[in-house]
Design goal:
mainly alpha, 4 helices, 2 strands, globular, disordered N terminus
Length: 118
């Protein structure tokens, strides 16, 4: 999957402080309280790079190379779940964002398996 196949990012009109977790809609990183937040497009590009390297989009929450990418994926999944349950998500996630993530093979549910004890 290359970055051009995910389509252009659509601009949304709402901007909230919580949106910074998902990325802003300007296509550029921004800073809040001394931290730099990547845009949705930048995070999507990071996810595509991860998929090219590892063959899947299941970024571990504590991914050593980019821990914030794992956190972002977790937040995306949580927002998607809230939308599916008819709740207001904490972070903005548009239908276009969902489509773009679907196009690269993003898994909305990731099972955590515990190893059996001996």
């Amino acid at each position: 999957v290359d970055e051009t196949s995910v389509g252009p990012q659509q601009q949304t009109t709402s901007t909230t402080a919580t949106q910074s977790t998902m990325g802003n809609r300007t296509g550029r990183a921004h800073s809040v309280a001394g931290k730099t937040w990547k845009s949705f497009d930048e995070r999507l590009r990071d996810l595509i790079k991860f998929k090219k390297k590892f063959g899947h989009c299941n970024v571990p929450r504590k991914f050593v190379e980019d821990q914030s990418l794992g956190s972002w994926c977790n937040n995306v999944r949580f927002s998607y779940k809230q939308i599916k349950e008819g709740k207001q998500p904490h972070n903005t996630l548009s239908t276009e964002d969902i489509r773009r993530l679907d196009n690269i093979g993003f898994q909305w549910r990731v099972r955590q398996f515990k190893t059996p004890r001996s």
